[in-house]
Amino acid sequence: MIYPYLQPSMKEEFALRYAKVKNEMKKEGCEAILIASSTNMLYLCGAIFRGYIFLYADRDPVVFMVAPSVAPADAANTYDIRKPEVISGWIEEHNLPIPDSIGLEMDDLLYSEVERLMNIFPGSAKMNASSMMRRARMVKTDFEIQKMREDGMHQAKSYSHVPKCYKEGMTDLELQIEVERILRLEGCLGYLRAAGSRMELNLGSVLSGDNADASSPYDFSMGGAGVDPSLPVGADGKTIRPGTTVMLDMNGGFNGYQSDMTRTWYLESVSDLARKAHECSRSILRELEKIALPGVPVSALYDRALEMAKEAELEDYFMGHNRKVKFIGHGIGIELNEQPVVMPRNDQPLLENMTIALEPKFVIPHVGAVGVENTYRVGKEGLDNLTIFPEELMEL
Fold first, then answer.
1. Is 0.85 surpassed by the pTM of this model?
2. DSSP string covering 297-312, please?
3. In contact, 378 and 294? CB cutoff 8 Å
4. DSSP 336
5. Picking from 26-35, 200-209, 356-365, which range would have the lowest pLDDT averaged per residue?
6. In what order do the strands lie in the sheet with 245-250?
7. pLDDT tens digits, residue range 244-288?
8. Helices 272-291 and 298-311, axial angle in degrees (round to 10)
9. pLDDT of 73 above 60
């Protein structure tokens, strides 16, 4: 295997990524970072391996492969090592400076891993590289956006098969299993990469009826009780009943990046209140697509969505009923939950080529969840939808 960052055709792409990371390092006064997490390794090298990436703010990155190495023998700036403790000695042997400040992924690694890496540089001030990397990854390159657009196309094709997956008398879990099969056949990698230790999920969730309003220990917009206390989220195994909705929020990861898309179906009939709330969700998205311009505070999107829910007299059902969440979207990319979080008090400005998932949803008691979620690129004239698929409330 030749890693993407070693391929001549990808040289310019990874130079852009290194430049963004170095810019964040310089803002923080961080001389070097040592990367070990899968997410940031994938961002900086285009692949995941057993090893480390060492990057000065003013030099090219160095890749350390823990044996056995799978890099070409003549790969530039790539070296085999037995353990991370030899890195400081390697730096001295190559007449490079031991950094006065070193960034480590304090939010992404176990405490014991961080402590071990700290001991490699005993005299260096320690900084949190996780926050620097998240800011660098927040604005996407054209290559990354194309990958996410491809994800959206695959996800939409998979969703088109949902009505055929449903059989009379099915449970929500049985339907989810059928949809998961379609996703895998379409090329889904079968793994949802998320930041944090409190974001456990399988290939997504199918929520029907009152399960849409079940509390969850995880920070999802719609939780679900799940079928086992070891994974209390998503489908609960109950039969899908006439008059209820079925909301699908399934995996969009086909190439190392992700798209996030939610669509809603119903069985036989659905209440006028549910229809009204669903159309309100679509109207909110149309409004946010126009006002989400570079420079606009992220909080303005949440504030406008809540205002529209109030105007429609749907505030009681907005982003939950028994349990509400205080956000309507999030950044997305290699991880499902990247920066920025679309919530009140987040006044950081939108930037061109940020990618965000917006999900203004409603929960109607005894009916279920309704609403739409799309993944967008922030463009100069508004939001560019990367998950194009019919948004109407559809019958199974």
1. yes
2. BHHHHHHHHHHHHHHT
3. yes
4. S
5. 200-209
6. 204-208, 245-250, 261-266, 394-395
7. 999 999 999 999 999 999 999 999 999 999 999 999 999 999 999
8. 150
9. no
**pLDDT tens per residue across span 339-363:** 999 999 999 999 999 999 999 999 9
Q: How confident is the model at residue 1 (pLDDT cuts 50, 70, 90)?
A: very low
Instruction: Tell the burial category of 351 from Cβ atoms under 10 Å away from its Cβ (0-12, 13-18, 19+).
Output: middle
CA atoms within 13 A on the CB side of 341: 12
Dmax of the chain from CA atoms?
A: 73
For residues 21 and 15, give the distance between their C-alpha atoms in angstroms, rounded to a whole number.
10
| Sign of the Cα pseudo-torsion (77, 80, 83, 89, in order) | negative
- What the block records as the tokens of 62 is 């160095």
pLDDT at 65 over 90: no
* 6 burial via Cβ count (<10 Å: 0-12, 13-18, 19+): buried
In angstroms, the first-to-last Cα distance of the chain is 44
d(CA 285, CA 298) in angstroms, rounded, equals 14
Question: What is the SS3 assignment for 99?
Answer: coil
Q: Which two tokens stand for residue 213?
A: 């309003």
312-320 long-range contacts, CB within 8 A, separation 24+: 312/276, 312/277, 312/280, 314/276, 314/277, 314/280, 314/362, 317/277, 317/362, 317/363, 317/364, 318/360, 318/361, 318/362, 319/221, 319/360, 319/361, 319/362, 320/213, 320/221, 320/222, 320/363
Do the Cβ atoms of 304 and 285 come closer than 8 Å?
no
Helices (H), 69-171: 87-93, 111-118, 129-138, 142-159, 162-165
The amino acid at residue 325 is V
Per-residue H/E/C for 234-263: CCCCCECCCCCEEEEEECCECCCCECCEEE
Q: Torsion angle of alpha carbons 351, 54, 122, 106, nearest 10°?
A: 40
* Cis before 68? omega within 30: yes
Cis peptide before 349 (omega within 30 of 0): no
Residue 304: name the closest of 293, 390, 351, 378 by CA: 293
CB 338 within 8 A of CB 196: no
Q: Which two tokens stand for residue 273?
A: 């209140």
Span 136-190, pLDDT tens digits: 999 999 999 999 999 999 999 999 999 999 999 999 999 999 999 999 999 999 9
